[in-house]
Amino acid sequence: MEVQTVDEERETDLLSVPEAAEIAGRGNKTIRRWIYDGHLKAQKGGGLYGRYRIKRGDLAEALKFTPTAWMKKQLVEKKALAASKQ
């Protein structure tokens, strides 16, 4: 059996979109857009509505980058991948 530390347990806490928005100081629509754009990792829950759940650690990681910085990072990675295929 694997034992998790307090910090590891905290990272596995799942947040709803409104909770993540409150922590991030953003609106619900912004959080959903980040999920759709791939800027923020989220798990889609089961059930009728399939609500998103976000790990605290994933939210903290997403907040390190502004969406513009994230898009620049993606562009650099795509260019590097294209160059490595040549």
Would you write up a description of this structure?
The protein is mainly α. The protein has one domain: Multidrug-efflux Transporter Regulator, Chain: A, Domain 2 (Orthogonal Bundle). The chain is 60% helix and 9% strand. It contains five helices and three strands, in the order H-E-H-H-E-E-H-H. The chain has a three-stranded antiparallel β-sheet. A hairpin with a 7-residue loop joins strand 2 and strand 3. Helix 2 packs across helix 3. The longest helix is centred in the C-terminal third of the chain and has 19 residues. It is elongated and about 45 Å long. The N and C termini lie far apart (46 Å). The N terminus is likely disordered.
- Whole-number radius of gyration? 16 Å
Structural class: mainly alpha
* Total strands: 3
What percentage of residues falls in helices of 4 or more residues? 55-70%
Roughly how many Å apart are the termini?
46 Å
Corresponding CATH architecture = Orthogonal Bundle
Reading off the top of the CATH hierarchy, the class is best stated as Mainly Alpha
The spatial strand order of the largest sheet comes to: 1-3-2
N-to-C series of helices and strands: HEHHEEHH
**How many DSSP H or I helices?**
5
What is the residue-averaged pLDDT?
A: 81
CATH topology: Multidrug-efflux Transporter Regulator, Chain: A, Domain 2
Low-confidence regions: 1-7
The biggest sheet amounts to: 3 strands, antiparallel
Q: Please, how many domains?
A: 1
Strand content: 5-15%
* Structural shape: elongated
